[in-house]
């Protein structure tokens, strides 16, 4: 059996490949020592491949030989494979890995170039949500956000133009959280949570659109656990991209790109 591990800032993603079968697992990165114990105990005979920010720490604490690879290269290899398996054949595209933080890449068939990063990512999503509402569980945040109303928190372009003709689409966000002082403090937890997700989603999409424009492509691929079962976020990414003439692709299992690529 071969095991690929992408040990990130928040989650350790693991894929076990046995013949044609793939098993996908995740562990909180704060349990890294337990994952190391488990690998030492059960997988010392297997071929283990590591990548991600905590790969070196894991390697130092495993009592058998493993191979490591650079996170950005591993992610690109895994992503290329997932794109092919999903039937996409892109010559040029950009991709954003929305993990704890976000990194942006321009890619062609033959390679990728990391062109930047942003501290706005999944860590922002859970951190700000916790500060505002006391809720820190990712799944609960997303579930509650589905019931929220962004207009109670965010200022849209049409709010500023008071129903008069707008030079850009009125439904665009003029200011994330910019409507808070205009209302009567009626933003519920749900409203605040969808606004947090909106802030992260629009920030990364806006960066993706600029990056894609500079790279002369419309294709933008989003990966990372932040998107996982997070239709609030992926709906905002898709509609904002569409509004601006971009094409957003969200890949199933995209968050496992690094773990898959590590063992290639
Ligand atoms: P990085 O690549 O920046 O080092 P990472 O690889 O750990 O970080 P991902 O696993 O891609 O990052 O994404 C982490 C984000 O995914 C979290 O910040 C959170 O928003 C979201 N998330 C999804 N599921 C969970 C979960 N079960 N527990 C915690 N966070 C989750
Ligand atoms: Mg990562």
From TrEMBL:
Organism classification: Bacteria, Bacillati, Bacillota, Bacilli, Bacillales
Domain of life: Bacteria
Species in which this protein is naturally found: Jeotgalicoccus meleagridis
Entry keyword 4Fe-4S: no
Xref: Pfam families: Fumble
CDD domains on file: ASKHA_NBD_PanK-II_bac
Family annotation (InterPro entries): ATPase_NBD, Type_II_PanK, Type_II_PanK_bac
Cellular-component GO terms for this entry: cytosol
Any single GO BP term: coenzyme A biosynthetic process
Gene Ontology MF terms: ATP binding; pantothenate kinase activity
Annotated keywords: ATP-binding, Coenzyme A biosynthesis, Cytoplasm, Kinase, Nucleotide-binding, Transferase
Protein name listed in UniProt: Type II pantothenate kinase
């Amino acid at each position: 059996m071969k095991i690929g591990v992408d040990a990130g800032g928040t989650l350790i993603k693991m894929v076990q490949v046995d013949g044609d079968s793939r098993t996908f697992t995740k562990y909180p990165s704060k349990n890294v020592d337990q994952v190391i114990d488990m690998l030492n105990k059960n997988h010392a005979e297997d071929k283990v491949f590591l990548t991600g920010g905590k790969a070196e720490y894991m390697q130092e604490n495993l009592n058998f030989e493993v191979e490591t690879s650079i996170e950005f290269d591993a992610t690109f290899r895994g992503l290329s494979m997932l794109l092919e398996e999903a039937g996409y054949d892109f010559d040029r595209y950009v991709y954003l890995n929305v993990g704890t933080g976000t990194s942006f890449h321009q890619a062609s068939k033959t390679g990728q170039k990391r062109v930047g990063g942003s501290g706005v990512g999944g860590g922002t999503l859970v951190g700000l949500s916790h500060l505002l509402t006391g809720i820190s569980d990712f799944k609960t945040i997303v579930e509650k956000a589905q019931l929220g109303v962004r207009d109670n928190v965010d200022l849209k372009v049409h709010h500023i133009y008071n129903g008069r003709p707008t030079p850009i689409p009125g439904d665009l966000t003029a200011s994330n959280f910019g409507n808070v002082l205009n209302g009567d403090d009626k933003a519920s937890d749900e409203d605040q949570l969808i606004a947090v997700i909106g802030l992260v989603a629009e920030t990364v999409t806006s960066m993706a659109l600029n990056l894609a424009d500079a790279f002369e492509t419309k294709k933008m691929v989003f990966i990372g656990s932040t998107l996982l079962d997070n239709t609030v976020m992926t709906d905002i990414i898709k509609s904002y991209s569409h509004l601006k003439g971009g094409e957003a692709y969200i890949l199933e299992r995209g968050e496992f790109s690094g773990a898959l690529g590590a063992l290639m």
